[in-house]
Amino acid sequence: MANQNNLLMITGNDDTLLNHNTNTPTIPDVKRADFPEDFVFGAATSAYQVEGAWNVAGKGLSNWDVFTQCDPGKIADGSNGCTAINQYNFFKDDVALLKKLGLQSYRFSIAWTRILPGGRLASGLCKAGIKYYNDLIDSLLAEGIEPCATLFHWDVPDCLELEYQGFLSRRIVQDFCEFVEVCFWEFGDRVKRWITLNEPWSFTLQGFTLGLFPPSRGATAIHFGNALKNFPRHRTKPGPRPISTAGNPGTEPYIVAHNLILAHAHAVDIYRKRYQTVQGGQIGMTNVSTWCEPLTDTEVDKEAASRAIDFMLGWFVAPIVTGDYPESMRENVGERLPEFTEEEEKLVKGSYDFLGINYYTAHYASNLPPPPGQPHNYQTDQRVKFSTERNGMPIGPPADSDWLLIVPWGIYKLVTYVKNTYEDPIIYITENGVCEKNDKTLSVPKSLYDETRIRYHNDHLSYLKKAMDKGVRVKGYYIWSLFDNYEWSEGYTVRFGIFFIDFVNGSLTRFPKRSAIWWMNFLAQKPVIPLKKQAKATDQNGQGSVKRLRSN
């Protein structure tokens, strides 16, 4: 089995750098000069998480607008992204921050309902929305920053959910194509890197298996509590949840994924046939994956680890590379896994110029036979148990989202696996980052100390460089995230940004954390600030002054 063989090539300690013990010696500091001159360093956000302005200037309602306001109990702190960090009004200041840091690219998403409020072209264009993105793109280019635009980051027009259940229907493909073609037409003369879908696995599983994202379908009792150990958790908190009786978790995730893949392929086809030659851009898809390490050296656990990656990454990458789903999915899901027609296979296969990879963490994986009589669902199909410890030793130290353990060597193994399994593609790391708790008892100055984040980025870059030295074709790296923002079902309870956002008094002022200063020095090829020598930030209430890079 090809995927398993490629997994076996990179499991185990192939040298001293790949030490899975959390007491690994300090990884060497990286320098900008360690990476090629044309290597792209950028930062990422998404529309719902940062823009705000949810109902201004003709914007239509998205699924997240409705979900968070009508069902706030699904969000950890009952919050929503109606204001978020108000980038809609502060984007010029934010572009100036990107410039000050020295970042070369900004990855943002285009809100479908800010362009087509009614979800499709026949319902009319929103000129104000088009102007907003034109202004953002022009501001970026004026500062020498490359725009990287994501076309779908989980915000479906609510009207299409009401009309035909969104991505549960094949009808979504045509409407998505109308949206993306408007974007290519309006922005493609300046946007040279397009991402069709962001983390379709997260959208599919959270919305149609766990029921934690809109449209909140598929959740049953087995998916909660200890059963989450049978799920590669990503942006998911443990604990009791409201249980939805809507949907069928044995079939709907596969239908939704199939429609997402077809929407992607048709969008790429439109771009290649009508725009790419003239506009000269590239287009791809971004997928998330944990690295899955076999819990033991047994064949069944090695197969389980391979299968886990198939069911997360391969589910969406294998079709666009090979034209079909992974063999392990065909075998375990059977006739519930949709088939591509001959024409669709031709359309889907090769529908990428690059692969975007979001990496955050790693797990151990072991074989888990399905319990007798259990209804079919993603977990029973996958047949994998996930754990964060081996022989009492954690795979990595925890961050403040308990799904995220810090495992830098996982990024090396993941991109090496992608190279070996999927025809040596061009890769961009489109998200990589770590969070801290949003501790409202801390003063702003104390909140700016994020040494863990500095070490996280340094160590992941070090392993990424190692992979590149061995021939993996990684061309760029995007920080998640530029700003603290709205983190989906976790609301504002955690902070991923290298800029602190003051949510408490409503000013939304941006303050650079120590990691932002680290990045500024790194990109300027200045010596990295040693953690123990970092200057103390102080506030403006008799304790000194905190540097504010934007004032209101």
CATH fold title? TIM Barrel
Give the termini distance in whole angstroms: 58 Å
The H-level CATH homologous superfamily, spelled out, is Glycosidases
Globular, elongated, flat, extended or rod-shaped: what is the shape? globular
CATH class equals Alpha Beta
Give the % helix.
25-40%
Mean pLDDT: 90
Biggest β-sheet strands, sense, barrel:
8 strands, parallel, barrel
Output the strand order for the largest sheet. Answer: 1-2-3-4-5-7-12-14
Secondary structure: number of strands: 17
Radius of gyration: 22 Å
Q: How many domains make up the coordinates? A: 1
Oligomer: single chain
| pLDDT < 50 runs, ≥5 residues | 8-25, 221-228, 531-552
Please name the CATH architecture. Alpha-Beta Barrel
The helix-and-strand class reads alpha/beta
Please indicate the percent range of residues in DSSP E strands (runs of 2 or more).
Answer: 5-15%
Q: Specify the number of helices.
A: 19
Fold and architecture overview:
This protein has a single domain (2-533), classed as Glycosidases (TIM Barrel), CATH 3.20.20.80. Helix 1 crosses helix 12 (299-322). It has 19 helices and 17 strands. With 552 residues, it is α/β, with parallel strands linked by helices. The strands form five sheets. It has an eight-stranded parallel beta barrel, surrounded by five helices. Strands 6-8-9 form a three-stranded mixed β-sheet. The model is unreliable at 8-25, 221-228 and 531-552 (pLDDT under 50). The relative contact order is 0.14. It has helices spanning 2-9, 47-50, 63-70, 87-101, 112-115, 127-142, 158-164, 172-187, 200-208, 252-274, 276-279, 299-322, 327-333, 342-348, 378-382, 409-421, 444-447, 451-469, 514-523, and strands at 40-44, 105-109, 146-150, 193-198, 282-288, 291-294, 354-358, 362-367, 384-387, 389-390, 393-394, 427-432, 436-437, 474-479, 494-495, 499-501, 510-512.
